[in-house]
Amino acid sequence: xxxxxxxxxxxxxxxxxxxxxxxxxxxxxxxxxxxxxxxxxxxxxxxxxxxxxxxxxxxxxxxxxxxxxxxxxxxxxxxxxxxxxxxxxxxxxxxxxxxxxxxxxxxxxxxxxxxxxxxxxxxxxxxxxxxxxxxxxxxxxxxxxxxxxxxxxxxxxxxxxxxxxxxxxxxxxxxxxxxxx
Length: 181
Known about the structure:
two-stranded antiparallel sheet; elongated; 6 helices; 2% strand; mainly alpha
């Protein structure tokens, strides 16, 4: 039996699959497929920080605890006035603190480096959609603090800033690297 060497034209070149290019296949893009790993890490750390603050606010809401470091009285900053106001309940039933906690549990999951690397557009759209919804709710909460309650909660402000930063990271990532695979 005589064996022949494959011709140079039939051997795969650099970057080609072992079988060569078949009809209809397209090479993978050469640029980065998503945000750099340091940005993914920052997003995850921000989500964890938001989860921690939201968990503390939820604990304080249900235990009637005073939030550490927050002044009480008639000044501009008064966490107790904010977290016990009628605006701290959605439809008079659901505490805003619970919504923040649920949002940040989801944010931690969707901001993990593994979620950033998933090649599914649904994950990217969920990340972007959740951050847009989160920012919309934050805008309402800032309005409620400033114009309806007339007091500002420092812990709430930390959550608002964290949500904005996550929104910015997600929006810039979607603009630069897309939401589709």
